[in-house]
Amino acid sequence: MSGNKEVLVEVKNVDITFGSGKKIFRAVTNASFNIYKGETFALVGESGSGKTTIARAIIRLNNTSAGEILFKGKKINGKLSKEDRTWVQRNIQMIFQDPAASLNERATIDYCISEGLYNFHLYKDEADRQRKVDDALNAVGLLPEHKSRYPHEFSGGQRQRVGIARAMIMEPEFIIADEPISALDVSIRAQVLNLMNKFKDERGLTYMFIAHDLSVVRYFADRIAVIHNGRIVEVAPALDLFRYPIHPYTQSLLQAVPMPDPKIEKAKQLKVYDNSVEEESADDGALTEIIPGHYIFMNEKQRSGFEAKLKEMKELEKNQ
Amino acid sequence: MTEMNRDLFELQIADDSESEHIASPQYSYWRSVFRKFFSSKLAIFMMILSLIVILLSIFQPMFSGYDPNVTPNINRPEMKYIRPNSTYWFGTDDVGNSLFDAVWKGTGTSLFISFMATFITTVLGVVIGMWWGFSKRVDAIMIEVYNIVSNIPATLIAMILAYALGAGPWQLIFALAVTSWVNNAYFIRVQVMIIRDREYNLASRCLGTPTWKIITHNILPYLVSVIMTSVSRDVPSFISYEVFLSYIGVGLGQQYISLGRMIQQYSPYMTSTPYLFWIPVAISALISVSLYIVGQTLADASDPRTHMV
Q1: Is residue B156 part of a domain?
Q2: Is the minimum CB–CB distance between B198 and chain A shorter than 8 Å?
Q3: Domain total for chain B?
Q4: B15-29: per-residue pLDDT in tens?
Q5: No. of helices (H) and no. of strands (E), chain B
Q6: For position B277, which CATH number holds?
Q7: Residue in B20, B204, B218 nearest the CB of A143
Q8: In this complex, is the C-beta atom of B29 within 8 Å of any C-beta atom belonging to chain A?
């Protein structure tokens, strides 16, 4: 499936470390994945697994210590010329997790939304800027009268939509959404997700969606990467991943999703993830394709075990 | 029981945009600051008091033409040490001049020194503190400068400067600024570091906002109340510092008059003619306390967290 699609973002063997010397901390190890144009790529994992760190490295907020990140085939990590930096800022935008913290409380909504326009002077005159801001507000379901308001006057869902409008006004091709709904009230999560889907359809956007909530990812993503302790353990199309969760960490993650059925929940045998699986493959392991499009982090020794597991799952499926 | 009937119902179409309206009146930062400030009666009283003192110290010397070096009554003993009365409101001093004239001239000098020193240290502190807090490279250098400058006793520097440069108000302002700007800058640096890596600043960087614009649009507005606090602390502390330096004899020279100089000069008269000593002390205390309370109330009022009541 990867052959006929255009690769938009390519992350190749990226390491991200913080600190130096003895206090060095490796947040992400040897991460590699592709994001294809027009898809929603989800990165799931527990808190502190390095999801946000990778996302911030793509948008150049974190430095990488090894590897390459390519956007449309052009290297975007490390030192860049001013034009290239501008090009990245124009084309990659981010939606932040906490709508309360990611808006400047001392600026009006007008300034918050037109900040990017001001920086690159993306408007002909003042009237054109006003029109663009009005359009952006309308597109996210807010009213032009909100321009003179301050962020603290809005509800969480409204603020997150301001955050989306601020990213959309730059007309980017690629959007990183860093847990955009986890700080929101359950009742408005769907509203924000639908809005993001609407923009994807209208503008052919590509999303990288970071989440720890698998039930949302199942609904929203085309392909999913599972990350654990800074290492990507499994990459697969969304349906495939839920059908054949091969890596033990993915299995335990999927089991954590509660089912709204007390009988199933009572009968559930919880699998506790045992780190030794990963440790065994930590040194010589690599992401290996096990079914087309479905990658598992493993070494050669583990291959037969994983393949047997896959076979077992397929058998089970047939019998049902 | 009435029968369920279609006619009883009326079709209502939900309008999502209705729920987006914000009913509360427009919020304006500065209007809220002033409303909050003027809701404190004590602050208004203190502001009027300090305004009276400031205006008196500006205009009274213009009318009296007081000059500490002009002493027409020095050979008339009957003009000296007159206790406060209806002619000489604050009495007369040891050379027969009206203390009322001297006090306001002296207050003017003290206020001028303190306001100028506060202005210089605040501007320097904010500008340097911003870069200090933002850039790791500047931080590495500045933290060493801070360690050195802040570990030399300020009084010692002030004394050396006073001896080297002479004893005028500008020299004193220079000495005060040299010894305190680094503390202001350090204070601002810490505040900048606290909010530097907040998410909205990361968002601005993603949108391509240059650093200077992040400083002026994202950081400075958050520091208004912090800077206000620092100013309201600095003004009275510089007044006291001037008094202290003059008192130990390294402040202003004989040809100038200030509250500090007066307190130093009249401290031997504390028992014989107490008003000569206590009136300047009282004025000095009055300015310090009133300016401090006004400044603190303004600092509180400029913190938007107090606006949401």
Answers
A1: yes
A2: yes
A3: 1
A4: 777 778 887 888 888
A5: 11, 0
A6: 1.10.3720.10
A7: B20
A8: yes
